[in-house]
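Sequence, please.
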């Protein structure tokens, strides 16, 4: 993947490719958008390393890379949210048949009602968690002002984490398969932890004394 992304590192198209991948990831969770972000950031780390007497080659700008990934994350969440909001009976039946979606919908509604949408941020790191939460919020007709701020926070947190992994992995281990693999492993590790936290049952409300 480093070779494929390397052909785009000197062009603004890298940001469009990253953004498109992140937007579509909410509908096709198998797309490796996180791996793409990490690989682009690793290429940036490699290209930013100066050699005596040489000028660094054109590389992705880390700020633009982070902004494109974060913005695309929120945009994808919003599209999924709106589609689920207008889903109608067919989508409602599909959600009702999915224990995972139903459970997430109930937990998300309770969390947002309490003003504690940390679940949205955690879900952004879990495999398919972003899809479950965005569709659940829309299908439950949660207010946009309750969901979107947490979606924005989740997108920024995920983008900063992914870009940081790629950049510092490339700085410390070099722009090799090892540096990329370690960074991707750290991303998947965060996803595994997030999935575990999402599966934990919601705490029961404490009865009033």
């Amino acid at each position: 993947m480093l070779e494929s992304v390397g052909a785009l590192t000197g062009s603004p198209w890298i940001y469009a490719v990253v953004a498109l991948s992140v937007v579509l990831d909410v509908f096709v969770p198998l797309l490796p958008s996180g791996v793409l972000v990490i690989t682009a950031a690793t290429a940036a780390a490699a290209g930013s390393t100066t050699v005596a007497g040489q000028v660094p080659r054109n590389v992705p700008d880390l700020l633009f890379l982070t902004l494109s990934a974060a913005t695309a994350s929120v945009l994808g969440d919003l599209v999924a949210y709106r589609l689920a909001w207008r889903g109608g009976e067919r989508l409602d039946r599909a959600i009702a048949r999915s224990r995972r979606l139903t459970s997430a919908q109930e937990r998300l509604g309770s969390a947002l009602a309490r003003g504690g949408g940390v679940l949205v941020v955690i879900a952004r790191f879990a495999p398919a968690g972003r899809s479950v939460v965005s569709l659940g919020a829309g299908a439950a007709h949660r207010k946009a002002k309750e969901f979107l701020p947490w979606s924005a926070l989740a997108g920024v947190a995920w983008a900063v984490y992914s870009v940081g992994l790629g950049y510092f992995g490339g700085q410390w281990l070099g722009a090799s398969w090892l540096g990329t693999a370690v960074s991707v492993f750290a991303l998947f590790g965060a996803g595994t932890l997030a999935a575990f936290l999402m599966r934990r049952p919601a705490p029961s409300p404490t009865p009033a004394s």
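The radius of gyration is 19 Å.
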